[in-house]
């Protein structure tokens, strides 16, 4: 029996060594195929987008959908320094003016992963842009006990290398990164997951296609990165160079952009002191004062409707607590989302965990449904702790909620540069209009977003007085303020 046990132990050890060796061989072969580089630079034309938004596209400023259009990046250059390890990228792009202006002005794109950020014991969100490149992935695989397996994706067979950084997710779970190596020892796909407030275990996938020889170095002609299944970043590679001698200075940081890594963890946000402004019987504006993201709660006979959930989990939790304090006997059945930008969806996980149904414009349904029904194993927020399937009701052009006494009307605002999924809420009894991001600045003419809203208000002929913005102004605003900003 002892001999059998010893044999079994030896067999298990041998198999483990073989697996480890297989991974090492796959890594070495892939690195050799890519030229055993210590650094690489490539350049071309790129495009990106702010997550959950539309890009500053000079040719088309009307938002057509989630991440459509994207923002162009011209003269894109990226350097990946495996010895650092570090990564930097730059290019010429567009910026949108402040205060709701859609005027496009030239700007500089800059992205970096410093050696401190590339430390796999540091936050994964700061380093993954280095490790989802084929070169960075193989470096990480070689240093972090990668394992090897076989898998089919979209009908194609791959050798899959898998490893984990030492840093853990908020839930204590290990992050995972997979690299898909084809039969020519080329890394075609790299994927990982990151805990994200709305997207849950957000899938991040980079696909590298059209590999070819760029004058002595093998590189992909096309790079496409998606997040949560949505377009996020693309590059059409036009040139590449192996081991450039000026790697340390090839992509300098723009003026005012530091080179150092981030410091320690940010401090805890200050406590939120919620106050409730009574707008009518069973109608309250919730705010935390200057800089607040405001919500409005509406009492119906059997339930409560919350207009906007707050821009963060903390704010949503504070607003839910205040709502239960004001109206303790009724459930929050609905939460209205004005549009799907991250600062207007951040509190939704709290309301979904409460059992509330999300009301949003039809164009946002797919995004919010896919996002909020994704597993949340990397997070510790209320929806991760109390999982529920997100329920969504949609507004096409108009939807009315009524119990025979209380009425809330919702309308789609389009076309607009900000989002194709914008809705506003009108409460007839108190003549209140509630909206997100159509900000009127006292003493200034209307910005381009308000200019998009104004003809809709004229067409609908809504008899509103109070004009409530999610982004709290310094003083209450009224219809007269909107009309004045429009020069009426």
Short structural summary:
The chain is built from ten helices and 25 strands. The protein is an alpha+beta fold and 488 residues long.
Largest sheet: 11 strands, antiparallel
Q: How many helices in DSSP terms?
A: 10
End-to-end Cα distance: 95 Å
Low-confidence region ranges: 1-19, 258-266
Q: What is the alpha-carbon Rg in Å? A: 26 Å
The general outline is elongated
The class by helix and strand makeup works out as alpha+beta
Q: What fraction of the residues are assigned to beta strands by DSSP?
A: 25-35%
Strand order of the largest sheet: 4-3-2-1-13-12-9-8-7-6-5
- Please give the number of β-strands: 25
Tell me roughly what share of residues is in helical segments.
10-25%
Q: Give the overall average pLDDT.
A: 91
Task: Report what the structure shows.
- This protein is α+β, with helices and mostly antiparallel strands and 488 residues long.
- Helix content is 22%, strand content 34%.
- It has 10 helices and 25 strands.
- The protein has helices at residues 2-33, 124-131, 134-143, 313-326, 342-345, 348-354, 365-372, 382-385, 448-460, 479-485, and strands spanning 39-48, 71-81, 86-96, 104-113, 147-153, 156-163, 177-181, 187-196, 200-209, 212-213, 218-219, 222-227, 230-242, 275-280, 283-287, 295-299, 304-307, 332-336, 357-361, 392-395, 398-402, 407-413, 422-427, 432-435, 466-469.
- The strands form 4 sheets. It has an 11-stranded antiparallel beta sheet with strand order 4-3-2-1-13-12-9-8-7-6-5. A 7-stranded mixed beta sheet has the order 14-15-16-17-18-19-20, covered by helices on one side.
- Helix 9 links the parallel strand 24 (432-435) and strand 25 (466-469).
- The radius of gyration is 26 Å and the shape is elongated.
- The protein starts with a helix and ends with a helix.
């Amino acid at each position: 029996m002892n001999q059998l046990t010893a044999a079994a132990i030896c067999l298990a050890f041998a198999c483990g060594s073989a697996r480890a060796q297989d991974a090492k061989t796959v890594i070495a072969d892939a690195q050799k195929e890519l030229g055993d580089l210590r650094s690489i630079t490539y350049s071309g034309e790129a495009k990106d987008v702010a997550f959950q938004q539309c890009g500053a596209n000079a040719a088309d400023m009307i938002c057509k959908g989630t991440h459509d259009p994207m923002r162009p990046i011209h003269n894109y250059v990226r350097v990946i320094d495996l010895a650092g390890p570090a990564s930097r990228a730059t290019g010429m792009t567009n910026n949108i003016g402040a205060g709701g202006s859609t005027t496009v002005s030239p700007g500089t794109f800059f992205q970096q992963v410093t050696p401190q950020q590339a430390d796999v014991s540091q936050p994964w969100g700061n380093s993954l842009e280095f490790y989802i490149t084929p070169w960075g992935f193989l470096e990480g695989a070689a240093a972090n006990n990668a394992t090897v397996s076989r898998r089919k994706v979209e009908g194609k067979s791959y050798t899959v290398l898998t490893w984990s950084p030492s840093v853990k997710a908020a839930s204590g779970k290990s992050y995972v990164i997979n690299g898909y190596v084809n039969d020519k020892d080329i890394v075609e796909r790299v994927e990982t997951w990151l805990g994200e407030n709305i997207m849950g275990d957000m899938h991040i996938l980079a696909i590298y296609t059209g590999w070819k020889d760029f004058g002595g170095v093998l590189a992909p002609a096309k790079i496409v990165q998606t997040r949560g299944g949505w377009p996020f970043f693309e590059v059409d590679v036009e040139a590449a160079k192996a081991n450039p001698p000026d790697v340390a200075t090839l992509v300098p940081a723009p003026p005012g952009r530091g080179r150092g890594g981030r410091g320690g963890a940010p401090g805890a946000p200050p406590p939120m002191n919620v106050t409730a402004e009574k707008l009518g019987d069973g109608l309250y504006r919730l705010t935390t004062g200057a800089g607040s993201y405001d919500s409005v709660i509406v009492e119906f006979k059997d339930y409560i409707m919350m207009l906007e959930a707050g821009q963060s989990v903390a704010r949503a939790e504070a607003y839910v607590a205040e709502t239960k304090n004001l109206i303790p006997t009724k459930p929050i059945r609905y939460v209205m989302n004005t549009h799907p930008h991250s600062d207007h969806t951040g509190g939704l996980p709290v309301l979904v965990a409460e059992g509330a149904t999300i009301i949003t414009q039809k164009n946002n349904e797919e995004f919010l449904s896919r996002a909020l029904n994704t597993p949340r194993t990397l997070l510790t927020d209320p929806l991760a702790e109390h999982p529920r399937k997100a329920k969504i009701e949609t507004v096409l052009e108009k939807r009315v909620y009524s119990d025979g006494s209380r009425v809330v009307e919702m309308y789609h605002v389009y076309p607009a540069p900000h989002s194709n999924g914008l809705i506003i809420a009108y409460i007839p009894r108190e003549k209140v209009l509630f909206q997100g991001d159509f900000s009127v600045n006292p003493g200034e003419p209307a910005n381009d977003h308000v200019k998009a809203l104004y003809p809709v208000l004229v067409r609908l002929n809504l008899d509103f007085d109070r004009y409530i913005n999610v982004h709290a102004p310094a003083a209450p605003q009224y219809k007269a303020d909107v009309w004045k900003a429009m020069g009426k």
